[in-house]
Amino acid sequence: MNELARIRVKICGITRPQDAIAAAQYGIDAIGLVFYDKSPRAVSIEQAKAIIQALPEFITTVGLFVNATTEFVHQVLTQIPLDRLQFHGEETPEYCISFNKPYIKALRMQPDVDVIAYAQRYATANAILLDSYVKNVQGGTGTTFDWQRVPTQCTQSIILAGGLTPENVAQAIQIAHPYAVDVSGGVEATKGIKDIDKIAAFMKGVSMSMTDLLPTKTLQLPDIKGHFGKFGGRFVSETLMQPLEELTLAYERYKDDAEFLAELNDDLHHYVGRPSPLYHAIRWSNLLGGAQIYLKREDLNHTGAHKINAALGQALLAKRMGKTRIIAETGAGQHGVATATVAARLGMSCVVYMGTTDIERQKINVYRMRLLGAEVRGVSSGSKTLKDALNEAMRDWVTQVDDTFYIIGTVAGPHPYPAMVRDFQAVIGREARQQMKTLSGKLPDILIACVGGGSNAIGLFSPFLNDKTVKMFGVEAAGDGLNTGRHAAPLNAGKVGVLHGNRTYLMTDDNGQIIETHSISAGLDYPGVGPEHAYLKDIGRVQYVAVTDQEALEAFHDLTRIEGIIPALESSHALAYCKKIAPTLAKNQTIIVNLSGRGDKDIHTVAKWEGIEI
Amino acid sequence: MNNRLISCFSQLRTSKRAALIPFITAGDPSLELTVSIMHTLVTAGADIIELGIPFSDPMADGPVIQRASERALLNGVSLRDVLAIVTDFRRDDQTTPIVLMGYLNPIEIMGYEAFAQSAQTAGVDGVLIVDLPPEEAVDLVNILKKHKLDPIFLLAPTSTTERIQQICHLASGYLYYVSLKGVTGSANLDINAVSKKMLEIRQYTDLPIGVGFGIKDAATVAQVAKISDAVIVGSALVQRIETIATEHLLTELGDFLHTLRIALD
């Protein structure tokens, strides 16, 4: 669609002349009148006449029918000068066109529906209206569907409907790129009665969607209390609330401070080795035969993963706050190593908490941390893995909160951690955006990153969230398979709950106990996920998928053999999903995969899986 | 405010003494024994009982109560079982207030309304959720109050004046002052620091204020009772539940609590 084109707006379910007049004053293009007596917004012929008489010029009137008899539609048409008909039921194309009026066909977005095929079947329709599917409800469902499912190549105009509101319409338009939007319940005070203020707010949302200058809500999030929609927040005991507030204030103060940023950028460049390259994996792309694959080489950072970006940022902040002692939790050991590294660099004392199961699995990283001068404390409570290490680090922090800074390794935890860690990791996406424009002259079509807690993914995604054309996939660990229960995929198969200071999707049982997770990759073996990911899932901006241990291992071998790069098992999940979708795309399309870490640490795990003793 | 808690604290005020509040984890060492332990504690001098809801990730607890939670979970104890324990207890005791203490996730998964309703029916009087600060608590507090359950909140050495006011505004029943920066069962509290903070808190509320964390023995109980309205003892009891053989458990727990009660009187 032409970027300058204005998005058309139809307000449906008008029942009163004054609502039609108000809507017209705010610049809407069409009104919908419901001729379906089971709807709470149904109008009689008399009501409809009064509404149409009150309308100013150049507003299209649309009559909505659901499986009506031919006689009834004719009866309406002889009495009311409708411009368009809109059919919401199981009407056939032959029926729809039989009235010799331009018509719109509504399609409810059931999970397996093929929009293009449907549009071809109704080739005589002027437009296809896409509505949410709720069983046994015809229109007015008030729920949204995944806007990514709206096809970009459709011969007819697409009208987007289903749960649109003043709050979500800008986002919806940026993702779905429809010709028009259709709203009903989202601008109502009560059913059938429109609310002028909501109409005004809705139109503002529509116009906001058309300018790139205004950041979408996503980038303004979280709110002041740390909420991403209903997710995030601060769920900790009272003792930690004030220290978290102090941390938030310090972060707010330094995040735009020129001197702080200069120090951070200098260290990112000279110490970490940034910018990390964006590497065109030509051989792998050719072998898969589809899109061009680019790897964001976070594996080439000092310490071998993206973790150091946020560890460094937080450690520099700790120094400014006058803290002398650093603590961290670690699962695979990458965040622990990164933290121990920056602590050594800054001359601060460092304690790393690690589950005793992980200590056994990741002996080399444990020794690395000790070499760097950190004290590694084993945690033998609970499942003895990452989540328990996080619990223990919180307990340490609450005890020594005066002199201690807790460096969290992912975009989880209480506010401000999800936002702060995201901002420090966003350097990944900022670089990738610039590099991709230089290399290919355009933005990438698709981004892929693995999601445990989700810090590397949010780091890559965040600077692209406003780029409407860029699709994003977060890849969770399906372990033995989503249907086996042995996985670590809360976004795909979890419930909303509260853990580690924030509300998010979790692996929890029906009694609210946290379930032990499983993944071949220790870094993804976590029962929660960053709250911003939960939010991005719910608004449909990012699609979250999952791949199994086996699929990740295959991708691990592929990249190693084909490109000569040994990826971390975490990153291998992103690669495995890339392997699935690249062949389905055109050769001029581009994918960026975040290669979040290198695989040296995983060599023992891979060998063991394959029955090889080293 | 809940009736049992009101009459409990008003009687205490008349007799001019602080309440003794033991904490135990429900289902530790077993579901069957918990109700007997509760009755034993009441007989030995408990005024209110705090009953812990076991949780897989007790972030604010020290090792003693963590292990109690793990034992209870190994026994398969769920939030529903905890409510059943209260129902059981109420058959023989209609007066001793029961306060449930735990973490938010089990309640979130059960649903606020369903939880509050079942808790009221079971005979619960107050609810303290360790990881639910006032900022996030408004929805649940409204539902608890609708069901005549008191929302008990923590106050800490790090609470600012603003936070103290906010919490006093939202809380009812009593307030729970965390005596030190740390987890449950931590070492030694500083009685002077606690005393100073208590004076500050009292400027903003008439609610009774209990003190917990780090209270291990009769001597500390006696000290804390002088400056507070309630003394909460958790880890010291739970530690005994962990180590004492089942056949002596009730007797020895009763004896221990009794020594604390004497110190408090």
Describe this structure as you would to a colleague.
The complex is a heterodimer of chains A (614) and B (265). Chain A is an alpha/beta fold and 614 residues long. Helices cover 39% and strands 20% of the residues of chain A. In chain A, the strands form five sheets. An eight-stranded parallel β-barrel of chain A has the order 1-2-3-4-5-6-7-8. Chain A has a six-stranded mixed beta sheet with strand order 13-14-24-19-20-23, with helices on both faces. In chain A, helix 1 (17-25) links the parallel strand 1 (8-12) and strand 2 (30-34). In chain A, helix 12 (307-320) packs parallel to helix 13 and helix 22 crosses helix 23 (569-581). Chain B contains twelve helices and eight strands. In chain B, helix 2 crosses helix 4 (79-92) and helix 2 runs parallel beside helix 12. The mean pLDDT of chain B is 96. Chain B is globular, with a radius of gyration of 17 Å. Chain B is 54% helix and 14% strand. The two termini of chain B are 26 Å apart. By secondary structure, chain B is α/β, with parallel strands linked by helices. Chain B has one domain (3-264): TIM Barrel (Alpha-Beta Barrel), CATH 3.20.20.70. The chains are: A alpha/beta (614), B alpha/beta (265). The interface between A and B is large, with 39 and 45 residues.
Annotate the secondary structure layout.
The complex is a heterodimer of chains A (614) and B (265).
Chain A (H helix, E strand, L loop, with lengths): L7 E5 L4 H9 L4 E5 L10 H10 L5 E6 L4 H10 L4 E4 L5 H5 L5 E7 L5 H7 L5 E6 L24 E4 L8 H8 L3 E4 L4 E3 L2 E2 L1 H13 L8 H4 L6 E2 L2 E5 L2 H17 L3 H15 L5 E3 L1 H7 L3 E6 L9 H14 L4 E6 L3 H13 L2 E7 H6 L1 H9 L3 E5 L6 H14 L4 E4 L9 H9 L1 H14 L5 E5 L4 H7 L9 E9 L10 H4 L1 E5 L1 E6 L24 H8 L4 E6 H15 L5 H13 L8 E6 L7 H7 L5
Parallel strand pairs in A: 1-2, 1-8, 2-3, 3-4, 4-5, 5-6, 6-7, 7-8, 14-24, 15-16, 15-18, 16-17, 19-20, 19-24, 20-23
Antiparallel strand pairs in A: 9-10, 11-12, 12-22, 13-14, 21-22
Helix pairs in contact in A: 1-2, 10-12, 12-13, 12-17, 13-15, 17-19, 18-19, 22-23
Chain B lengths: L2 H12 L4 E7 L5 H13 L5 E4 L10 H12 L4 H14 L5 E5 L1 H7 L1 H11 L3 E4 L4 H13 L3 E6 L5 H10 L4 E4 L12 H12 L6 E4 L5 H10 L2 E4 L1 H9 L2 H19 L1
Parallel strand pairs in B: 1-2, 1-8, 2-3, 3-4, 4-5, 5-6, 6-7, 7-8
Helix pairs in contact in B: 2-4, 2-12, 4-6, 5-6, 10-12
